[in-house]
């Protein structure tokens, strides 16, 4: 059966993220949904903001739940905006942002938005709703507008402490304005409501702009993300308050960390051996970077043991004890290979027990350039967190929800599906294609290179055998991840119409 024609990343972004933006409505929080990793943030800074400036918008508030999301945005897009003559401000510059006479963008957290409500409302009224735009990243976080929607949105019953400040503020800003636009990969129940009031208006405060058919297919995702290489559900995942699921993470013969490391060593040696004596030997040795990460998501109960989750301290202690008994070299046991992130701080740990505190702003650098192999965190890293080196994702918590809502599970799993080739500087599909073309005349090297890439461009999940994780994995496989076999470069038919991007017979 012939595969359907796959769209390019540019075409998917245009259809899923850019075209729907034009359908925004007044008096609604407009929402664009899309799977993780197809370029929501890229489209905001490279398409939406520049074209909106051309349409007369002068001031943009880009908001997200956490400062880490903005740290990555600053690194990637500040120069691009500057070249377009668009000023970029951070949270400490809100007064300068409002006084700016040039097109300007300010990066705020949801909390900062809440604290600045009065200022922003007055500013919107002063310059006019047509010149003021709010772009909300990860709107599923804090997106509940009314008390009665909290349980169906999150799965958790409402509490007296529950407040809906952020979403209510967005709702207020949307009055007479079509310029309140939000993004998410996992829309809330409230966003999907289709009922109408007596006047024919949607009862939802939200207006989803794009359609399900505009999303990439799982086949298209095979070119955009890493493939789901395998997953396992663990029945007895916690015993006597010890996270025994870590045993599966490390030792499983199909999806385990140690088996993956063993396979990695083989692929590295195979690629290097095939490059020996060729004109590509120096380049191949230079770009090989086989470092990967395992992400352990733990419960939020830091100080006491719980049958429902493993705390960060408990997880760290158990992981260190297992790794001490492993065949890891003495030298590697002294490296800071474990990073623990919590609201209390960020700490690097060695397997042998040494530790040191690091700043939150240094997390990404440590993950990308340091010796970290294991990342332990609460759900705080399930949104907008980009680290392509994550291969293994494991949950160590029982979600005590009244209703089974899988958004959180999907968000966490999606941290592991970023495209990753195990190669320095080769960080896009297009760059990989160029590299493969350069080694085309050496078939054995080409095969070794593609086998190497196949090994790295996959991710694995180790999950408690609970209904929420089984349901979450089912939806994740259906919409967010590809299980398509990675057969790039293996086509042998001379007369054909294939979708193999590395087909040797393509002209």
In summary, what is this structure?
The protein is an alpha/beta fold.
Average of per-residue pLDDT values: 88
Question: What's the CATH class label of the largest domain?
Answer: Alpha Beta
* Oligomeric organization of the protein chains: single chain
Percent of residues in helices comes to 25-40%
General description of the model:
The protein has 507 residues and is α/β, with parallel strands linked by helices. Helices cover 37% and strands 16% of the residues. The chain folds into 2 domains: 9-214, P-loop containing nucleotide triphosphate hydrolases (Rossmann fold, 3-Layer(aba) Sandwich); 218-479, P-loop containing nucleotide triphosphate hydrolases (Rossmann fold, 3-Layer(aba) Sandwich), CATH 3.40.50.300. It has an 8-stranded mixed β-sheet, sandwiched between helices. Helix 11 (257-275) packs antiparallel against helix 12 (281-287) and helix 11 runs antiparallel to helix 18 (443-456). The longest helix is centred in the middle third of the chain and has 19 residues, at 257-275. The protein is globular.
